[in-house]
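Reopening this one. Same input as before:
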Amino acid sequence: MQYLNRADAGSRLACELAFLAPRRPVVVALARGGVPVAVEVARALRAPLEAMAVRKVGAPGNPELAVGAVAEEGGAVLDMHTAEMLGMSSEELEESVAQESARLRGMAARLHAERARASIAGQTVIAIDDGLATGMTMLAAVRALRARNAAKIVVAVPVGSHEAASILRDEADQVICLTVPRRLYGVGMWYQDFRPVDEDDVLALLADPYGCERELSLQLDHCRLAASLVTPDAPRGLVLFAHGSGSSRLSARNRAVAGALRVAGFGSLLFDLLGDGDASSAQRVFDVDLLSRRLREATGQLVCEQALEPPAVGYFGASTGAAAALVAAAALGGQIAAVVSRGGRPDLAQRRLSDVLSPTLLIVGERDGEVLALNRSAAEQLRCTHELVVVNGAGHLFEEPGALQRVSELAISWFDRHMQ
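Same output, byte for byte:
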């Protein structure tokens, strides 16, 4: 897998880390390259974000070859075997460590000048970098986090070598590495855009990690509902998320998909179809007419506010929300460019399926047998352009490794094709 850039890598990583959202983790980014990756994860999980200063201890004449690393509040981690093979004397090694430690202190002072560090004692911590080559800097970071009494440390990276991942598994509680190539060659080889991240970029991201997100309050159907509008620069269109029963705009799974859409150039509106009083009513949770009416009203408000022209609006529905999306799309005719259903209940929209004009993609997990049967039946009733895609090995919630990332890829491809 090759990533477009660090933001793309972060959005893909967020899909794999959505299962950690209930633990309310703290995201710690290794500065500098790990920060743009970690920002995407923190956004999806709505988690606190902080950056940790780390420095590689390079070999004489070849600073990219790590013989060790230093991190805040942690001692130096040294690869004595490599240092000996390079003929480094103990004095040379000590001098390199001292130089990098001095640079580290300056970097740490700038990182923490405006932001207090998060309390991680007793917390689950996700340590993120843009990749693992030797693993030395991440190893130093893990030990520093242990010194701050983190309860559980999850190392998460887009790409890394077998050797580095193996070293980290001995020290961290869990290692999640999306791509482990047979030969790494270099972390930058796995990115189309791997330009250096400068300190100003890091400080800007840390100062406003949620800069692309705006909280809204929508007046829908005589009810005021909370919403989150996620927009990239110059969005190509807007996707409204219709959540299923028992979920909300804070769903880490849907937020991870929204993050991937944003990186691909699409804005997203995540909002609660039900208010606090509604959500406790089983009748309202399955009231598809009510849910679809609110979805249509939200569509009208956003089209006016964002000055959008059809077909620049799409729907992404999950569970009962997918039925609401299909009924709303049927009512709005050709105004909705495309509909994507993740583990949806299109059977609840059965009476309107033949009226849907919007190209519709049904995504179902292979292991979600009952819902898969319902989607196959619904697909036979659709008269619009449609596809049914079964994600191998996935269950209803798409929690398996790679499953939610596959959902994001399918959704982006579908909206790419139909939202012109």
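So the earlier flakiness isn't reproducible anymore. For the record, The chain has a mean pLDDT of 90.
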